[in-house]
Structures are given as C-alpha cells and as structure tokens.
C-alpha cells in the first residue's frame, strides 16, 4: 500500500500553480499595521498561509519576526493568519488588487 501524503502542499496541485517567478521586490515588501492586503500564495517559498485562504482580503494587525499577522473573515468568524510578505499584495479600499 502507498502511504497517504500529509505535507503542507497536499491536495493543492492546481491551486498553488504559478507561472511567475518570485522577485526580490516581493520578498522585501513592507506593510504597516492597518493596511489591507490580498493573499496570493506563492508556492516557491515557505511561510505561506493555508491554501483555503487563497484570494482572501484581510487587514494587517501585527508583525511576528519576518512575517505579518493578517486578520481574515472566514464565514462568521475572524481568524488570524501568519504569512510572509511574498504572499501578500496591497489591496485598495474596495477589496481588489491595486
């Protein structure tokens, strides 16, 4: 029998697929507390949020080391996601990308 995969990228073959390469600018991007961000997972690097938050828009509420704490609404609950800067993009007030 084959053992079931339980890694961080399980069941994400198409969701985490990307044609673009990660750039230095995306890795050193800075955000301030209170900024609204769009979560776009880059599969080349670690420190990414759970794949179910792909495409979500949230607000930065803190910083932990090199990562940011993002508050995201998940159905009726508010959840805190810890993610590195390369997985976050600035979002405008309406919730879309800048």
Count the strands?
5
The secondary-structure element order is HEEEEE
Mean pLDDT: 84
Find the CATH superfamily of the domain at 24-90: Ribosomal protein L21
N/C terminus separation: 48 Å
The CATH architecture classification of the domain at 24-90 is Roll
Query: Which CATH first-tier class of the domain at 24-90 would you pick?
Result: Mainly Beta
Helix content: under 10%
Radius of gyration in whole Å, from Cα? 14 Å
* Structure annotation, total helices: 1
Low-confidence segments, given as residue ranges, are none
Portion in strands: 25-35%
Query: Reading side by side through the largest sheet, how are the strands ordered?
Result: 4-3-2-1-5
* Class of secondary structure makeup: mainly beta
Major beta sheet summary:
5 strands, antiparallel
CATH topology of the domain at 24-90: SH3 type barrels
Shape: globular
Brief description of this entry?
The protein has 98 residues and is mostly beta strands. The protein has one helix and five strands. The chain has a domain at 24-90: Ribosomal protein L21 (SH3 type barrels, Roll).
Description of the structure:
The structure is a single chain. This protein has 98 residues and is mainly β. The protein has a domain at 24-90: Ribosomal protein L21 (SH3 type barrels, Roll). The chain contains 1 helix and 5 strands; from the N terminus they run αβββββ. The protein has one helix spanning 24-27; strands at 36-39, 57-64, 67-74, 77-84, 88-90. It has a 5-stranded antiparallel sheet, with no helix packed on it. Strand 2 and strand 3 form a beta hairpin. The radius of gyration is 14 Å and the shape is globular.
């Amino acid at each position: 029998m084959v053992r079931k995969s339980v890694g961080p990228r399980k069941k994400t073959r198409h969701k985490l697929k990307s044609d673009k390469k990660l750039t230095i600018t995306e890795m050193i991007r800075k955000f301030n507390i209170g900024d609204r961000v769009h979560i776009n997972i880059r599969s080349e690097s670690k420190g990414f949020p759970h794949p179910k938050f792909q495409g979500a828009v949230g607000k930065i509420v803190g910083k932990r080391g090199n990562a940011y704490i993002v508050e995201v609404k998940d159905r009726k609950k508010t959840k805190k996601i810890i993610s590195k800067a390369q997985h976050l993009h600035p979002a405008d007030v309406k919730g879309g990308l800048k």
